[in-house]
């Protein structure tokens, strides 16, 4: 097939989560309630960390960046999903589909690399406490956050480059509520075996290696903490356990989606919803609920703004 016939498909049709109108209406209000409750919480985390000098350590700086990344990540697919609940024919343009894949994987990979940075921060705090301020300075943190975004960009641009060169000249129906690599590749009217291997190497393999590295590193840190005093051991261990929870919450659904052959599997849409809509916004909340310093800073900030509001109303 000549290159001039490539990308004949200009629009993809999304089947969504359910064909039943009643179910779509229920899901719309559930997701809307979830967003109106959890999204402001993530914004509050960012404002609290940036506004309270007591939270000036690298750990909280990275937490604020995680909350920002998750807010961006949850702005890629859910807005269109919510709008599509009221559409009889759910469609997305070819360019919109490529953009959705690009930003989804840019932000997802950046978050994975940021979690590696947070693991490095905890490693230095536990194993090199006397050198912590020099090894994890604010400049180093900015550099590592920038590297996370750069790594996410490289990952996403390679992925989109592999998909964009495929010809789409036949079926255009995606059995999902957003564009993602496995479903889109299956619609290409050519042999995609090589592309599937390359995308798995760039996507599934990277996810799996990051997950295993984080799991091993935090397990070793917990073993290292056994030599600490009970008081210091308890606080740092709690932080490490929180990180492990977030690692599982983020990576297990991603492994289920991307670390397998490109074919439909049971509960794929449910896992996709958890991975792209629910879990990202809850990640920073998990850190906050297990961190007394952040909760205390939030109460101080809310109390401070509340007192200002009362003063202005007088």
From TrEMBL:
Its main location: membrane. It is found in: Cell membrane. It holds the Pfam family 7tm_4. Keywords: Cell membrane, G-protein coupled receptor, Membrane, Olfaction, Receptor, Sensory transduction, Transducer, Transmembrane, Transmembrane helix. The chain crosses the membrane at residues 25-47, 59-78, 98-120, 140-164, 204-223, 235-258, 270-289. The keyword Membrane applies. This is Olfactory receptor. It comes from Terrapene triunguis. The lineage of its organism: Eukaryota, Metazoa, Chordata, Craniata, Vertebrata.
